[in-house]
Amino acid sequence: MSAVLEIQGLQKTYRSRKGVRKALDGFDMVVEAGQVHGFLGPNGSGKTTTLRTLLGLIKPNGGRMAIFGREVPEALPEVAGSVGAIVESPQFFGNFTAHDTLSLLADAGGVDQGRVFEVLELVGLRDRSKDRVKTYSLGMKQRLAVASALLKNPKLLILDEPANGLDPGGIREMRTLMRTLAESGMTVVLSSHILGEIQLICDSVTIISAGRRVAAGGVADVLAQHQTSSVRVRVESLADLTASAGALREIGAQVVVEADHLMVSGVAQASAITRTLASRGVFVSELAPIAVDLESVFLELTGTAPVDGAHRQVDQSAMAPAVPNGGWGL
């Protein structure tokens, strides 16, 4: 596969009365052709700054960027016709209908008017296309924004929180649409806080924290790198939890006692757990390996997991080192 989007060492610094803030601190990112690529990070991590810089809306302080192998922002006039994007919350004229909005955009971009009906169908707005946008819910406006980004039938589609305001059915429809677009040859970059959806839909991910890349690669590969050997153990009687924990520690296991179960790690074979507890007259009702998910990996890498009794502030994400093998490659 060839790279559709490449970012190397991207830097963006903001100066204010409070001093200098590095929004991007040598950020790297690569997206291969035909993929759905998840771009993840906590609020204030640099996601939107990256997208705005890539699209020429912000001038970087350093680094390199390329779309379809052409250096941007210099080559943006040449590649812009093949890029569709939503960055932050889209704005529309409330008194226009969805059809009028897309028709005007099609005229401005030299797009055939037949494409307007196609994209309205794709995003599920066909039956409401004659209604004024001011009557639309947040989710419907988001569908309209996606439709506007699809008008040019782009080769690269960049979507910032496309599921914002959608109900569960709408989120599933959006997921199906993204996969269909990728299967047709379009490359999709998807920024979202709905990590379960990202895990379901994306082929690969990049995670950013404090302006630096902290993870990148195939979704399965990123999860595998953080897979644990922990096992959840439930016993028939809660009264046996403490004694069970002690017995397992005697065989070298690391045990955390939760309200109604044990979290056990450091045991080569799960059968050692059942044998040890059975020898103490304790019967196991559940023995389940803990599968890591994208949310837990994200919280670990960005340092944004909730802490009891603390109120994490925006921008308090992990200052983790950049992942190895920086540069153009993953």
TrEMBL record:
The keyword Ribonucleoprotein does not apply. Transmembrane segments: none annotated. It comes from the Bacteria. Residues 5-235 form the ABC transporter domain. One of its GO terms (molecular function) is ATP binding. It holds the Pfam family ABC_tran. InterPro entries: AAA+_ATPase (IPR003593), ABC_transporter-like_ATP-bd (IPR003439), ABC_transporter-like_CS (IPR017871), P-loop_NTPase (IPR027417). Keywords: ATP-binding, Nucleotide-binding, Transport. Belongs to the ABC transporter superfamily. This is Putative ABC transporter ATP-binding protein.
